[in-house]
Automatic annotation (TrEMBL):
Lineage top rank: taxon: Bacteria
PROSITE patterns: VOC (PS51819)
InterPro entries: Anthracycline_SecMetBiosynth, Glyas_Bleomycin-R_OHBP_Dase, Glyas_Fos-R_dOase_dom, VOC_core
Record protein name field: VOC family protein
CDD domains per UniProt: SgaA_N_like
Transmembrane residue ranges: none
Pfam family, one: Glyoxalase
Amino acid sequence: MDAQLPDVEAGKRFYGELFGWTFEDWFGPFTRALKDGEPVAALVRKTDGRLPTVWTVYFSTPDARALARRVQAAGGQVVQSPVPAAELGVTALVTDPDGAVFALWQPREHPGFGRRREPGAFAWAELYARDTEAANAFYGDLFHEALFGPEAEPDFGRAPVSDVFPAEMPPHFLVHFAVEDVPAALAEVTRLGGRVQAPPFETSYGTVAVVTDDQGASFALLRR
């Protein structure tokens, strides 16, 4: 996953203090975020101020071009066709039929997360959809093996937009970072200039709070 930010240096300060991340220059405009020396995310400077300030989740696939075609055939859209990211992999940006944006990643030298499901790392992605039945059909077909196969360990769920957000909020993915103490993490977010969008609430996968960073990118804190 990566965050598109107006100010990457400010992002490094915010997430470095919040999650204990360190950073290194990576591919092109991307800065890689590390937790205990292992990759957990990336930050990238927005090249166009009209683009949203957001976190984007990437789904791994052995063939980004084939999956992009399947997305399109199922009613989604290809926003950015698959392109190589040097020797790291192949990436594409797509939407589901409801308009929620996500990315595809065909790994080469960069397989993905070095750490996850632990404090300061990715723990869950929740799709907030307007039509949950349509989402079930679309993603259930697209990622059937990952969601339902014999070795499935999904870190992905879906809920109606209106469960947490105003009904007019566009469908979107919300990335969740694991924390040991949600109230303490909320206090730190506020101290660093972020704000609380939704105070702690209980879900089937843990206690969640929704926040924004000091540049407006939304994400969630999760205690499982």
